[in-house]
Amino acid sequence: MITKIYVLCEPNGGEIRYIGKTGQSLSRRFGVHLTDARRLNLTSHLANWLRSILSTGHLPAILLIGEIEGDGCKEEIAWIAYGRSEGWRLVNGTDGGEGALGHKVSKEAREKISKALKGRCISEERKIKIGNFHRGRHMSVESRRKLSESRKGILPWTTGKHLSPETRFKISESNKGNIPQMKGKHFSAEICKKMSNGIKMAWKKRQELGSNKASFETRKKMSETHKDIWAKRKQLKVA
């Protein structure tokens, strides 16, 4: 198993503020950090720092500092100790070494977690707080450009991967009898109206920005992409 040791820095590659490890790609791990930061119930030093950066319309930088065999616990601990000895203002809440990369939760544990979470619902007050937190938050043009640049050349993790007939059969068998989540469910007239108004507002904003229509080149790329996807699906069915 290959583990990546990485750092999170101030925007534009400034001061190092966090040291971590992951078995995922950096882009995916970065996305998890940003998602966690937007959760109001997280009040760690890392989450607070990330929120302070996001509130300015910028994004922190993520940089790879090494790849090693194994879980990377010792290396992470060593890097955090070194950073603190150098006076880095790290927002790490611990000395490192936590977590279990590649750990799989047993079926019994999953069932316990499922039972514990069943019946839970978010209170109306909490829904309002979450809505108010996200309402009106827009990423600046500069931040969007930087995010776009950072993701160029990064291929999806499934690119070039093909499932064996045995794996496809197992997936098929595991899905048999499963009822789709939305089957038999119907949105109320009020929710349908809200969804409709939301779509209308989105199109109105796109029209104001002059981007209500994709360029001929963009439409052509989208068409070619979908053709490739359907061709691969047909090949898998034949196989």
So how many helices?
A: 9
- What's the count of strands? 3
The N- and C-terminal alpha carbons lie at a distance of 31 Å
Largest beta sheet: strand ordering: 2-1-3
Ranges where pLDDT stays below 50 over 5 or more residues in a row are none
Give the structural class.
Answer: mainly alpha
Tally of individual domains: 2
Please report which band the strand proportion falls in: under 5%, 5-15%, 15-25%, 25-35%, 35-45% or over 45%.
Answer: 5-15%
How would you spell out the order of helices and strands?
Answer: EEHHEHHHHHHH
Q: For the report, how would you describe the main beta sheet?
A: 3 strands, antiparallel
Shape: globular
Helix proportion range = 40-55%
CA-atom Rg in angstroms? 22 Å
Mean pLDDT: 79
Describe this protein's structure.
It is built from 9 helices and 3 strands; from the N terminus they run E-E-H-H-E-H-H-H-H-H-H-H. A 3-stranded antiparallel beta sheet has the order 2-1-3, sandwiched between helices. Helix 1 (26-37) crosses helix 2. The protein starts with a strand and ends with a helix. It has helices at residues 26-37, 45-54, 73-85, 107-117, 124-134, 141-151, 165-175, 189-208, 216-238, and strands at residues 2-9, 16-22, 61-69. The protein has 2 domains: 2-117 and 127-134; 163-173 and 184-239, no CATH class. The longest helix is centred in the last third of the chain and has 23 residues, at 216-238.
